Amino acid sequence: MSKVKIAVVQPRSYLRYAAGRVLDDPTAPEEKNLSLAFDYVDEAVGEGAQLVAFPELYPGPSPGSDALRYEPVVEALREKAKEKQVYVLFGGAKEVNDGFYNLYHLADPHRDSLFTYQKLLPAMNEDTMLRGDEPGLVETDIMKIGLLICWEAWFPELARVLAMQGADIVFFPTGGLIYELHEVWRAILQARAAENTIYTASSVNIWGVEAGMSYIFSPEGEVAKLTTEGINYGEIDLDRLHRMRSEDEEFTVPKKYRTIPGTLRVLDEAVSSVYYRAAKDHFDKREV
Hints:
Blueprint: E1 3-10, H1 32-46, E2 51-53, H2 70-84, E3 87-96, E4 99-107, E5 114-118, E6 136-139, E7 144-147, H3 156-164, E8 169-171, H4 182-196, E9 199-202, E10 214-218, E11 221-226, E12 230-237, H5 238-246, H6 263-266, H7 269-287
Parallel strand pairs: 1-2, 2-3, 7-8, 8-9
Antiparallel strand pairs: 1-12, 3-4, 4-5, 6-7, 9-10, 10-11
């Protein structure tokens, strides 16, 4: 399959409780998130999307939610993916004893198994979150998909690992309340795409207190952008992506690509050793 149409949803999201008590509203109808998710999937499939991706912890439940339960939400969206024959990426929190896992799932319409990524790096306000072990990577019939969550985009090592493992695209589903970081967020998503020769995609929840910031980037630049509630559509050109990975930069004009191709081909053990030594020295000093 040469080209894949994806739908990155930036939904109206209902949340009763949020970090910092910014959004506390005990009357917020969180249960509506699931029915709205069904509507977004229907709309995206109607527009020809082969994959639908939601933001972090959507449709839920969120930590502390008493309106949605984890297992029924997961089962409902797995059934929706099968019904519509579309891949669905979605998030939710799973309570475990005194903590929770921040999870992001891929429902495959062609398989009974469910791929689940456990967020690896808790954010500063996620002191009760349990850590996962590895970045998420899953191979589907349409492409190889990498999964990270929110501020994990700030750690280039994670996206690089997924690129080295063959990811065609890395999704960064994000919670919200970060619109003031818009320009930096945009630059980071573009950088992760360019430096690794991958696509990147992200969206946030629209809680009514800020604008949205959904982007899809190729290694060569912005594919699609959305700052309002709705669905951000983009096309993933796998043939072009794989050519960029297999070719080297040529010092000619006009340029064949609007990026430097073959970056991972240049990466070698010597470069990796430099990073390893620096990382070891950094952590050794921090422990003193």
